[in-house]
Amino acid sequence: MLTDPQAYPSGLAWCCESPWKFMSLFRPNVDRIAGYVPGEQPQTGGWIKLNTNENPYPPSPRVAEAIREASQRLNVYPDPVATRLRRIAADLFGVDADWILPGNGSDEVLTILMRTFVDPRESIAFPYPSYVLYETLAALQGAISRRLPLHRDWSFDLKAAEATVAKAKIVFVPNPNSPSGNLWSSDVLKACVPPRGVLVLDGAYADFASGSTGSELLQSEIGERIVLTRTLSKSYSLAGLRFGFAVAHPDLIAGMRKVKDSYNCDSLSIAAACAALADREWLRQNTSKILATRTRLATALAGLGFEVVPSEANFVWATRRSGGHRDLYEGLKRQQILIRYMRFAGAANFSEDVYDGLRITVGTDAEIDRLLDVMKTLV
Ligand SMILES: *Cc1c(COP(=O)(O)O)cnc(C)c1O
Q: N or C: which end of the chain has fewer CB atoms below 10 A?
């Protein structure tokens, strides 16, 4: 009966082959959102990819070895709480293993946080412009998103933020921030701790930062309201693996563990993550290469007339007064160079309506040379 168009008003049957599709089966929250759109991942060769902050260097060779070994035991379920991984990660942060919760990428950790702490109609907050995913996750949960205004130099407008922070169940702060790459001090972060909620310090780029990213707040008097997140996607060159984790007081982790899927991380990724986290020398060498290239990229872009925010991450945010950012992005794309064109509507203090610019990932020296050569022909 349901599939019979005759059962529906004739106008509907006439205008559409499948009239029953007019009645959405989705939750209103799902209907309302556009869905998060990640950066382009071309599936053909020949591209220089500087658009999703991946690491241009390969992961530690110990990773492949660990995966090969773990593949001998795929007939059994993984360790649901990733005991060995938690011990290794805990050592890096000077905490016990019950302070760690692994996830299928740190994006999954963000989803777990949202589902653990935020009820529909409660609110979350985050600086704006920053990571767009927080808003999408909140919408899916039926929660309210509020933006914390920044000054034009990317410092927090703490006075304007106060009332919003006070109402939030979670405040998300990427530190270093994306797309700007700037780092906020621990004093500023303290002012972002909601009185009846938690502050999530999204440390996706923490390994590239020269100063503190706020992890010492875990051990402070507000430590029970702090959650750090980390990913292996950027600094550890493992974006294809999907592994991240949260570091927080065991009471918070215990609640999050109830929400996560029993086997949210597979045996191969757990084994690989253990190997990657243990190879500190590999991390150090790759990171220092990226930082050297970052300096070169920022200097060259400034020479081409861009304003470049001093970056503490593996990308730079470049804008120019004359605008035309989208055209530059398109011009590079025609030469098979992908960077990220980003636009932010309603960014207080930044512009009246739309603020936009270019986020460029730090690639290898050769990739950055090529980018700069083409950019010179476009500016
Ligand atoms: C890349 C990124 C993440 C996601 O990392 P995954 O572990 O790959 O899911 C989280 N937060 C920010 C700010 C990021 O840029």
A: N
Please count the structural domains in the chain: 2
Helix segments in the chain, DSSP class H: 10-15, 28-32, 61-70, 83-93, 106-117, 133-141, 158-167, 186-190, 250-259, 267-278, 280-303, 325-334, 365-378
- Residues 175 and 285 both lie in one domain: no
User: Distance, CA 106 to ligand 1 centroid (Å)?
Assistant: 6
Question: Residue 313 is part of a domain; what is its CATH number?
Answer: 3.90.1150.10
CATH number at 257 reads 3.40.640.10
Of 51, 55, 101, 106, the residue with max ligand 1 atoms within 8 A of its CB, to mutate for a pocket test, comes to: 106
Q: Is the pLDDT of residue 267 over 70?
A: yes
Residue 38 is predicted with a pLDDT of 81
Q: Identify the CA nearest to 256 among candidates 97, 108, 120.
A: 108
pTM of the model: 0.92
**Ligand 1: residues whose CB is within 6 Å?**
53, 105-107, 131, 174, 178, 202, 204, 231, 233, 239, 244
Paired sense of beta strands 198-202 and 226-231, if any: parallel
- Digit-coded pLDDT (tens) for 222-243: 999 999 999 999 999 999 999 9
pLDDT digits (tens, 9 = 90+) for 96-126: 999 999 999 999 999 999 999 999 999 999 9
pLDDT digits (tens, 9 = 90+) for 35-85: 888 888 888 899 999 999 999 999 999 999 999 999 999 999 999 999 999
Last residue of a domain, one of 279, 313, 337: 279
In a domain, 181, yes or no: yes
For residues 120-139, one letter each, b for 16 or more C-beta atoms within 10 angstroms of the residue's C-beta and e for the rest, the string is eebbbbbbbbbbbbbbbbbb
Using DSSP's 3-state secondary structure scheme, residue 150 falls into strand
pLDDT for 238-258, tens place per residue?
999 999 999 999 999 999 999
pLDDT at 9 over 50: no
Q: Are residues 332 and 194 in the same domain?
A: no
Range of the domain at 190: 61-279
**Residue to substitute in 107, 130, 208 for testing ligand 1 pocket (most ligand atoms within 8 angstroms of CB):** 107
